[in-house]
Write a structure and sequence with these properties.
Layout lengths: L5 H14 L15 H17 L10 H5 L23
Length: 89
Amino acid sequence: MHLLPDDIQKEIKLVEDLTKNNSGYYLNLTVVYGSRQEIIDGIKRLFEDFKKGIIDINNLDESLFMRYLYFGDEIPYPEPDLIIRTSGT
C-alpha cells in the first residue's frame, strides 16, 4: 500500500475497518501487482524451506506451492472467481 497516494491508503483502511467483522465473502484487491514477482517470491520461500529440510521436493505439487504464494493458507479460497486486469505490462 505504501506505493499508493495517502488519500487512497486512508480510504482502503476505512473500508477494511468497516468490513473487518464481515464473513462469507472475500474481496482481494491488488494494485501495482505483478504475478511474476509473486511466483519468484514463492520459489525463494519454498527453496529456503527445502534447504532447512522442512519440505521434500518430491512432494512438490500445485497444492504445496500455493502455500508459498502471497495469500497461502490465510484465506479459505485464495483463487479468484473474477479477475479484471487493466492495460499495462
